[in-house]
Each structure stands twice: as structure tokens, then as C-alpha cells.
Write the C-alpha cells for this entry.
Amino acid sequence: MSTSTQTGATSQLFADVIRERRSVRQYDKSVRLSHEQIKELLKEAAIAPSSSNVQPWRFLVIETEELKAKLLPIAYNQSQVTEAAAVIVVLGDTEGYKKADEIYGEAAKRGFMPEDTAKSFAERTISMYGSLPKEVLHKIIHIDGGLVSQQLMLVARAHGYDTVPMGGYDAAKLKEAFNISDQYIPIMLIALGKAAKPGHPTTRLPIDDITFFNEMPAN
Ligand SMILES: Cc1cc2nc3c(=O)[nH]c(=O)nc-3n(C[C@H](O)[C@H](O)[C@H](O)COP(=O)(O)O)c2cc1C
């Protein structure tokens, strides 16, 4: 169990955090995180924005040796699955919008909005999301899931932990092996732990090549 980094002791500058986050693929197997530590990271990650604040993300934390071994072939034998302290399966809940009552109700209770406004927001949200075509709803859930995933990786780094996002897995097998119903869409896997070896440096496209002010260039 790691004692060097306590969850809650965020001290690094944000600029360091974003520069130092790297995809780490080799982990110190002796480092484990407690449920409390993982929940603290997820709580900060979940401050991420989401469409209508519906927060459709759900987290399945896989942390036992047995379950990580079960996940390994599903994630094409990527060794970080078993080496990392935990693998977070980021899921999108296609019925997440049904919690709009709870979400806006809490906002009203805390005085962030009048109760009748909260009630009409909730009603509108539930009716609007409930009538969206499936592809549109799924797209929204993927965008929200990506935002929370990125925030989780930065939060983890801020607390001295490392991550790697993984799209390399068989979603159908994952759902079957871990009893994930069709209500949920797997967004990505995120291995979480402490690096045994730093992630390798990567490059980015020059910002001038990918930024356009006011109009797009002619093709
Ligand atoms: C959606 C997504 C899926 C990814 N899937 C994998 C994966 O399955 N296995 C892996 O080792 N890295 C995976 N990566 C990590 C990328 O390779 C990595 O982010 C990229 O090379 C940039 O490196 P950096 O994260 O260290 O900056 C994935 C990243 C994203 C955003």
C-alpha cells in the first residue's frame, strides 16, 4: 500500500499536472489504493461538466487479482490491466437522465435555484432525453464519458497516481463477463496505479497547424 501520496494532498500546479500526465503502461504491483482513495479521485473527476448536468457516467472499479485476470484477455492482454492497482471501467448510463429529479432537486435544496425552476428543468430534461433518437443519446453519453475520463486522469496525476486510457478491449465480451446490461455503454477502461516505469514521451501537432481563427481554410 502506498503511503507516499495521500489523497487530498493536491499540491502540484495544474500546469505540471497536465504536462506530467502520460499514458503509463508499467505499474508498481505493490501499490494498491483503498476504496476511500479511489472514491475521492472519482468524486473529483465527477466535477466534470456534462450535458444538462445529467452526469451519465458510472464507474465499475475492477481491483481484485481474480477479476483483473478475467479482464486481461478481454483487453487483448495489455499487461497494465493486471499490473495496475485498479482498472476503472467508465460506463455511460443510457437511463442516467432519469436522475434529473434527484440532481435538480438537490440543487434546489442547496439554494442554487428555486424549487419550481428545478422541477420544470427536471421535467424538461427527462422528457427531452427520453425522446432522443438512440444514436443522439449515445453520442451525448460518449462526449460526457470522455470528459469525465480525462478529468479522472488529471485528478489521478494531481494526487501522484498514473493512468492509461484504453479503448483496446472487446466491449461485447466485457459486458458479458462483468454482467453489464444493455442499459450501460462502455466508454473506456482506465488503468490506475503508480508507475514502475514512466510513460514514454509523445509529440503533439503544432498548434498553428490545427487552429483556425474565424474561418476554416479552403480544402
Ligand atoms: C480513446 C483512447 C483509447 C486508447 N487506447 C489505448 C489502449 O488500448 N492501450 C494503450 O496502451 N493506450 C491507449 N491509449 C493511449 C494513447 O495511446 C495515448 O494517449 C497517446 O499515445 C498519447 O500519449 P500520452 O497519453 O502519453 O500523452 C488510448 C487513448 C485514448 C484517448
Observations:
- Confidence is low (pLDDT under 50) at residues 1-12.
- The longest strand covers residues 184-193.
- The pocket of flavin mononucleotide is lined by residues 22-23, 25, 78, 164-168, 188, 199, 202 (CB under 6 Å).
